[in-house]
Amino acid sequence: MVDLLLAIQVVTWVVVCFLFFLVGRTGSIFHPFTFYAVFHLIVFVIRPLLLQYAGFGFTYDYMRFTPTPETVSLTLVVTNMAFCLFALVSWWSGHRVPRFDRQPGPLTPLQRQALIVTFAVLTPLALYSAVINSAPRVFEGSGGIEMVIDPDTGIQTLANTTGYLLDAQGMLATLSIILLCVTRFRWYAFLPLALFLAYRAFLGWGRYAMVMSLASVLLVYLFHKGRRWPQPRFLLVAIPLFIVFQQLGEQRDYVRYLVTGERPYTWELPVERSWVERQDTLDFANFEFLTAILWAVPEHSDTYTYFTQYLQLFTQPIPRILWPEKPVGPPIMLVNMNDYVNFMGLTNSLVGDGWLSFGWIGVVITIALVAFILGRLHRAFWRNTASPRALLAYCTFVPLSLQWFRDGGITIVMFAAWALFPLVVWYASERALVFMYGRSVRRAPAPALAAPGAGLAPPVRQVMQALERTFPPAEAAPAPAVAPPPAPAVPRP
User: Fold this and answer.
1) What is the pTM of this model?
2) Number of domains into which the chain is organized
3) Residue 303: domain span
4) Parallel, antiparallel, or unpaired: how do β-strands 156-158 and 145-149 relate?
5) For 402-438, how does the pLDDT look when each residue is reduced to its tens digit (9 = 90+)?
6) Residue 363 domain-assigned?
7) Which residues are CB-contacts of 261 (< 8 A; sequence separation ≥ 6)?
8) DSSP 3-state helix, strand, coil percentages of the chain (rounded to 5)?
9) Could you tell me the strand order of the sheet in which 156-158 lies?
């Protein structure tokens, strides 16, 4: 039965993608279904094939759980249904034919000054966060970022700092993407992005930040070039990225060790394994995680969560420093997977989050709602492509949906908040400048825009003027030539 369902899984993916991308006119890399199709292919099509025919089993050993063929079959059916439902709802709600004729124009002087203010305010904060975040994670003693693992849920919490300070460095990716967009991908604009990628590789943790930032750059670049799909030459970037991703998965401190020469206490001796055997890790193992969820809920848990895990949206923003008794995880936890398997450090996935909520009904509600939201964003994007902020916001958020599909729950809110925060500050700065200049207009008959950094201390003014040179003003388009009027006809005698 499992072999038959695996074949159906492959055929369904091929047929749905063929209908969506080749027959329909809305298919492109900008559509959210593209990202879900890639996610589904890796974790719910290829992964179960490797489990069945390549002897993968590390994740099941880690969870101390052996699934029955009936549970594996149920998992295949649930994921296949979710895939078809996501395709249908996202196509219906996001039906919009891509058009690249409305490209963002040059920044106005007001937008440019607001962007300079954004960089001047957020860059020091993000760099400070990056320095603080470069300290190693420790679970005992001092000398780094102290982490505490809750024994009941397996969730890691911070003991001597706050997540706001550590996560602010995520703005560096968005600031780098903004710089690339407004400079039209000048070569020097790639330097901040390269430094950010090197920094994330040095940290070792949060590898998906590297993938998400490059995916966002790819979307902005393809829109700038007016292309629906990337060219094969982009594999020259994808292959090295996959190698780094896999190496950091095996040893998080690998790049740190190459830079500092210090072998961390978490260092493990390398084991000679084949390339296929090296893929048998917790990476991309959402199928195994989901199998455990479907086995435990509701047969062993005797209940569902009934969507109570989303109450964490109200408690998570409060720093634990201000609320030491803050609940670890959701304030109401009706189902704890660690009561049935070893689920420490693992994720539910969007499908698993729906099953935890209310079984089949929960999966339908969760998948349909997320597909509807992303589809509507897709439609709104193609209606507002002339706005540089709308372009950047969509191209930054849609790649983050991969983490939404992988984790489920509220993690997308935390990731998206920091990724989109520079764009929010840019918009707020522009509105503030409009308000300030509006008051000047009421006081003086013909005001001029203030020079960058006017009225500030000399060091700050120099920084603002340097940023002004980085974002040169848009050149006015030459006036169209007007043909001289034709000479009047001379009447013939």
Assistant:
1) 0.86
2) 1
3) 2-443
4) antiparallel
5) 999 999 989 999 899 999 999 999 999 999 999 888 7
6) yes
7) none
8) 60, 0, 35
9) 137-138, 145-149, 156-158
